[in-house]
Design brief:
429 residues; alpha+beta; 8-stranded mixed beta sheet; 5-stranded antiparallel beta sheet; 10 helices; 27% strand; globular
Length: 429
């Protein structure tokens, strides 16, 4: 597939640091605020935020056939609804504008002043209004680890797991942008050895290392999206920390699955990296031959993406520690299979919907994507640089997740998703 913006030889006239997540080959989309009441749809190259409304006002998108009113909204939802050909054309045009040898904007100081902002001087906001949020459970290693901990180790995976992408509907109202703090949740737990539950703050707050994809208007009610067409309805990806309260979860999840343990906060990175930008990093996904999925989930070709992921824990006023290194390519079920399964019953998927991958764990202990696995439910504490230990996340710890792809001298990254855990808000009866 020839996507001009992906050309690894491209250079920008904007200064871009060598290991930046945002070279000219990335061109993600997002929303930022310059002043408190002004939200701007934009992109990013290096440490520069780019105003797309300003580019449009100055005529840089004049010959592109789309409803340019979508660039003046406060979210990307309407732009995403324009469809894949428009996203691709606009991204390619941004690439042309900022290519090193193109003088049109480069040599126009007045235009540059309207278009470019230092990312340190803007606030990056939630990029879309997320109407619906679904979280999957698609890492075989993660599902096996959890099954071994809490069920029969010889039958760690439930009978349906290898036949369909397991998922549940989450709570979109508590999806928050990177940098926004999270309060320790409260709820019911059943202490070990007790028969009656107690109410109080969770003592086992955990991160879950995930990515999430953002959809366009994929179908109408009653229609299905085929596995072959699914990627045409995926706009791009963000990093996702799906915070979890393991002790609350253990008590509440039977019979209907996650509830209060998972709906108090989900943190995301805010620059959406398009599927087009990730195209060079396609790779094979794990084999699905034993058993083979049902026909509507079968696919050929490469539908996984080689995205390196890592998690860092930073205590307040102390040195940080890298606790996990994983990769999206480990996921058993692909994004296209997840979307095809999600709609096979006619469920409608709309612009701005978000779908989490589920915790991304690899086969080695340092690639496990949650504290639950890294410490094996608290049995093996992690030692921090200051001599303290962690079994789960402590108050005032900041969890930082990073993700990037690298090939042919090009690094495409997501920035990071970072959130600090604050103490619980006192409960007043």
């Amino acid at each position: 597939m020839n996507i001009p913006a992906n050309n690894p030889s491209l250079k920008s006239w904007l200064e871009v640091e060598k290991n930046s997540d945002f070279p000219i080959q990335n061109i993600p989309f997002g929303v930022f605020s310059v002043e408190e009441d002004e939200l701007v749809i934009g992109s990013r190259i290096g440490n520069y935020a780019i105003s797309l409304p300003a580019l449009n006002d100055l005529g840089y998108f004049n010959d592109i056939d789309f409803d340019d009113n979508v660039l003046y909204d406060e979210t990307l939802n309407a732009f995403i609804s324009e469809g894949k050909e428009v996203w691709r054309t606009v991204r390619n045009r941004i690439s042309e504008i900022f290519e090193a040898n193109n003088p049109k904007l480069r040599d126009n100081a007045e235009h540059k002043e309207a278009v470019l902002f230092n990312v340190e001087e803007v606030t990056v906001e939630l990029p879309v209004f997320i109407g619906d949020y679904t979280d999957f459970y698609s890492s075989r290693e993660h599902a096996t680890n959890v099954g071994m901990m809490f069920r029969d180790p010889e039958n760690a995976l439930l009978p349906n797991w290898l036949h369909l992408p397991v998922g549940y509907h989450g709570r979109s109202s508590t999806i928050i942008p990177s940098g926004f703090p999270v309060n320790r949740p409260m709820g019911q737990t059943l202490p070990k050895g007790e028969k009656q539950p107690v109410f109080g703050e969770s003592k086992r707050v955990d991160f879950e290392l995930e990515t999430a994809f953002i959809t366009t208007d994929a179908n109408i009610l009653g229609e299905r999206v085929s596995v072959e067409e699914a990627e045409n309805h995926i706009f791009g990806l963000v990093l996702l920390n799906d915070w979890s309260a393991r002790d609350i979860q253990t008590w509440e999840y039977v019979p209907l699955g996650p509830f209060l343990a998972k709906n108090f906060a989900s943190s995301i990175s805010c620059w959406i990296v398009t599927l087009d930008a990730l195209e060079p990093f396609r790779c094979a996904s794990p084999s699905q031959e034993d058993p083979k999925p049902l026909a509507y989930l079968q696919q050929t070709g490469e539908h996984a993406f080689d995205i390196n992921l890592e998690v860092i824990i930073k205590p307040e006023n102390a040195a940080e520690k890298l606790v996990c290194k994983s990769n999206l390519k480990y996921m058993y079920w692909t994004m296209s299979q997840q979307l095809a399964h999600h709609t096979v019953n006619g469920c409608m998927v709309t612009s701005g919907d978000m779908m989490g991958s589920g915790t991304i764990s690899g086969s080695t202990k340092d690639s496990f994507g949650s504290m639950l696995e890294l410490t094996w439910a608290g049995q093996n504490p992690i030692e921090m640089p200051d001599g303290s230990t962690r079994t789960f996340i402590q108050d005032y710890d900041t969890v930082i997740m990073k993700g990037y792809c690298e090939k042919d001298g090009v690094r495409i990254g997501f920035g990071n998703v970072s959130s600090q855990l604050l103490p619980a808000i006192p409960f007043v009866k």
